[in-house]
Write a structure and sequence with these properties.
Length: 124
């Protein structure tokens, strides 16, 4: 399984970005997809996750109102729509695949495959 994250960039506070994670390889093995982020000097933290087939997204409470995870299985792509961005959202965002289907948020330790990360910078 290979993951390619894209869509990051520089945006002003209050703006929006949509991240994409293109998935290739043995996609039939994937159970859950997740987005994570890591700010400078901080540990990687979960943002949202979604079962690869069927089901709805799960979110970290602090991001639930502003972020939306979705998938397009026909395009083998997972998205993270981020609205009302804040400077504290500045981080490298990673997508990850878990071979197990999970209910609820996916944690870093669940990630079996990882994308390379895409930088999101929110200016005040």
């Amino acid at each position: 399984v290979q993951l390619q994250a894209s869509g990051g960039g520089l945006v002003q506070a209050g703006g929006s970005l949509r991240l994409s994670c293109a998935v290739s390889g043995d996609t039939f093995r994937i159970g859950t997809m997740g987005w994570f982020r890591q700010a400078p000097g901080k540990e990687r933290e979960p943002v949202a996750s979604i079962p690869w087939r069927g089901g709805i997204g799960s979110y970290v409470d602090s991001m639930k109102a502003r972020f939306t995870i979705s998938r397009d299985n026909a395009k083998n792509t997972v998205y993270l729509q981020m609205n009302s961005l804040k400077p504290e959202d500045t981080a490298v965002y990673y997508c990850a695949a878990d071979l197990r289907r999970r209910v609820g948020i996916m944690y870093s330790s669940n990630g079996d495959y990882w994308g390379q990360g895409t930088q999101v910078t929110v200016s005040s």
